[in-house]
């Protein structure tokens, strides 16, 4: 085969390698969309549409959906495909109860193991969260609020809890999107800072008490009335298409 013929055989594959998203990127975008309440509970997740959005095959999309299903934020049903999980009232109560137990344990361990450097990183995250809400970017603020709890789990220095927490935080975000009252109030900024003060002071009782109060505040905002966002996948991930087109124009 001549050297001149080689480039003309597979330009599409080469282009996909340049513009198609990686598995990690696809997972991160979908996870963030759930945490930011841009994907409503019950939204159908079309493999074809997502493959078109991210520039990858349906096989790759199917793999990422399976991973999200493993974490409890996507439901995959025979002959019906995948959709964003929509917890029932009873499921929501069970998830929140499990979250309370895990948060208590994480807080106790964080008091023992969190370094000052980790606490400083958490404070920076809280500041960024506050800034997002202050400029009206509620979705990013909600995501950072959830990521705060994931980072706290890492500071607890117990690997299994990090995995548990990731699933519980994302499922809690779905519950909030589905059942939160219409007041849209948010006060985790002060609660997170007070919690960090107690952890830094190595005061286990106070830290646990503050975390349980924080969980009470989440519960108080729920009334089990459904409030959906959107089921338009192209609208949710519109920034992905823009980024891919922009990348294509530079090549």
What does this structure look like?
This protein has 251 residues and is mainly alpha-helical. It has 2 domains: 98 residues, Orthogonal Bundle (Arc Repressor Mutant, subunit A); 132 residues, GntR ligand-binding domain-like (Four Helix Bundle (Hemerythrin (Met), subunit A)), CATH 1.20.120. Keywords: DNA-binding, Transcription, Transcription regulation. This is DNA-binding transcriptional regulator, GntR family.
Question: What is the strand and helix layout of this fold?
Answer:
Blueprint: H1 6-9, H2 11-19, H3 23-35, E1 44-45, H4 47-54, H5 58-70, E2 74-77, E3 81-84, H6 89-113, H7 116-134, H8 138-155, H9 159-179, H10 188-200, H11 204-220, H12 233-236, H13 238-250
Antiparallel strand pairs: 1-3, 2-3
Helix pairs in contact: 3-5, 4-5, 6-8, 6-9, 6-11, 7-8, 7-10, 8-9, 10-11
Protein name: DNA-binding transcriptional regulator, GntR family
Keywords: DNA-binding, Transcription, Transcription regulation
GO molecular function: DNA binding; DNA-binding transcription factor activity
């Amino acid at each position: 085969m001549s050297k001149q013929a080689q480039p003309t055989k597979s330009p599409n594959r080469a282009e996909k390698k340049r513009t198609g998203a990686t598995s990690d990127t696809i997972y991160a975008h979908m996870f963030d969309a759930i945490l930011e309440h841009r994907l409503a509970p019950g939204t159908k997740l079309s493999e074809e549409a997502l493959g078109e959005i991210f520039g990858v095959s349906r096989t790759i999309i199917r793999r990422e959906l399976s991973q999200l299903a493993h974490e409890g934020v996507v439901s995959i049903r025979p002959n019906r495909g995948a959709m964003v999980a929509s917890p029932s009232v009873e499921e929501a109560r069970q998830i929140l109860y499990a979250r309370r137990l895990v948060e208590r344990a994480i807080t106790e361990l964080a008091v023992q193991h969190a370094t000052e450097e980790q606490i400083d990183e958490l404070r920076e995250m809280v500041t960024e969260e506050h800034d997002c809400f202050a400029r009206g970017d509620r979705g990013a603020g909600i995501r950072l609020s959830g990521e705060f709890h994931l980072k706290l789990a890492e500071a607890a220095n117990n690997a299994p809890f990090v995995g548990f927490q990731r699933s519980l935080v994302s499922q809690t975000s779905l519950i909030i999107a589905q059942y939160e009252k219409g007041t849209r109030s948010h006060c985790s900024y002060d609660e997170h800072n007070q919690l960090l003060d107690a952890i830094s002071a190595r005061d286990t009782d106070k830290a646990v008490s503050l975390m349980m109060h924080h969980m009470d505040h989440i519960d108080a905002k729920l009334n089990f009335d459904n409030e959906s966002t959107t089921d338009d996948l192209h609208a949710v991930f519109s920034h992905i298409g823009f980024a891919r087109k922009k990348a294509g124009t530079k090549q």
